[in-house]
Amino acid sequence: MRSIDCAGKKLKLNTPQIMAVLNLTPDSFSDGGQFIRDDGSVRIDHALASAETMVSNGAAIIDIGGESTRPGAPAVSSQQQLERVATVVEKLSSRIDTVISVDTSSPELMVESARLGAGLINDIRSLTRPGALAAVATTDMAVCMMHMQGQPINMQDKPEYGDIVAEVCGFFQQRVLDFTDAGIGKNKILLDPGFGFGKTLQHYVELLKNFESFVALGLPVLVGVSRKAMIGQLTGRSVDQRAYGSVAAAMIAIQAGANIVRVHDVAATSDMIKIHLAMVGE
Ligand code: YH5
């Protein structure tokens, strides 16, 4: 059976899996500030309870982030990210069997996350910060490699591609070599085309229509479309009203072979996957 080892926790990939978003930031686009007090401290018990609800609703991975990737969001020091995520990562990883993913570009936080029990690093910058490749290579964690054109501050200014599908595939192929050269096993790598990261609506559609091309590269594929601007553009809905559109887009990716969907609306996505599984006879 297909699976990926996340520092000792096995993540099954024989059926599509849900990565649930747990934002420990005061300023996230999609659900910001739920777990942060006015003094900046984290509501640990609320965050843990929310994660446990996500697991009972069908999440296989909890993706914990302490830094917003919103264009123009203030940079958060490694120390501050660590203060936000450390206790939640540690308590959750000991309480539940679910894989804990940490959303960070900071090498220090990557190493510390492994020590606290995390099994996966989700870095939108694909380990480009100095020391990040080496940091992950010293651990037994899996890592998600995401495509982004530009940087969060300018990525939506004027995204341009020749053939976006070929460019994203080319990026994956080169970056897989960089990862393996640094000592990260190919069996630890997930691919993510990075919806919303330097792409227009037209680009999103192109990526989703040709999703099989990423699956054909042979590594597990993760996709994050939940509540993003494309869903807003196509449905005319505000961020808190995008669940149905998000589930529809996730289903298209799953039907094309996506292995993991990163979502905010776990129960709705779980129902969709049940319907999908009935269709493919599982
Ligand atoms: C992703 O695709 N995305 S953070 C804006 C929104 C709603 C949601 C305007 N981290 C991804 O979720 N990691 C983020 O409304 C990610 N793949 C991976 N691997 C952006 C986000 C969002 C942004």
List keywords for this structure.
TIM Barrel, binds ligand YH5, 40% helix, 10 helices, 282 residues, eight-stranded parallel sheet, alpha/beta
List the helices and strands and how they pair.
Blueprint: E1 3-6, E2 9-12, E3 17-23, H1 44-56, E4 59-65, H2 78-95, E5 99-103, H3 107-116, E6 120-123, H4 132-137, E7 142-146, H5 164-181, E8 189-192, H6 201-209, H7 212-215, E9 222-223, H8 229-235, H9 243-255, E10 260-263, H10 266-279
Parallel strand pairs: 3-4, 3-10, 4-5, 5-6, 6-7, 7-8, 9-10
Antiparallel strand pairs: 1-2
Helix pairs in contact: 1-2, 2-3, 9-10
Bound molecules: ligand YH5.
General description of the model:
The protein is α/β, with parallel strands linked by helices and 282 residues long. The protein has helices at residues 44-56, 78-95, 107-116, 132-137, 164-181, 201-209, 212-215, 229-235, 243-255, 266-279; strands at residues 3-6, 9-12, 17-23, 59-65, 99-103, 120-123, 142-146, 189-192, 222-223, 260-263. The chain has a single domain (3-280), classed as Alpha-Beta Barrel (TIM Barrel), CATH 3.20.20.20. The longest helix is centred in the first third of the chain and has 18 residues, at 78-95. The protein is globular. The two termini are 14 Å apart. The relative contact order is 0.13. Ligand YH5 is lined by residues 29-30, 69, 103, 122, 124, 144, 146, 192, 194-196, 222, 224, 227-229, 239, 262. Ligand YH5 binds at residues 29-30, 69, 103, 122, 124, 144, 146, 192, 194-196, 222, 224, 227-229, 239, 262.
Radius of gyration, Cα only, in angstroms? 17 Å
Quickly give the CATH architecture: Alpha-Beta Barrel
With strands numbered from the N-terminus, the spatial order across the biggest sheet is 8-7-6-5-4-3-10-9
Q: Structural class, from secondary structure content?
A: alpha/beta
Shape: globular
| CATH superfamily label | Dihydropteroate synthase-like
Question: Care to count the β-strands?
Answer: 10
Helix content: 25-40%
User: Residue-averaged pLDDT, rounded?
Assistant: 95
Please state roughly what percent of the residues sit in beta strands, choosing from under 5%, 5-15%, 15-25%, 25-35%, 35-45% or over 45%.
15-25%
* Number of discrete domains: 1
The bound ligands are: ligand YH5
Low-confidence stretches: none
Which CATH C-level class is it? Alpha Beta
What is the N-to-C order of secondary-structure elements (H for helix, E for strand)?
Answer: EEEHEHEHEHEHEHHEHHEH
What is the CA-CA span between the terminal residues?
A: 14 Å
Q: Briefly note the CATH topology name.
A: TIM Barrel
What composes the largest sheet?
8 strands, parallel
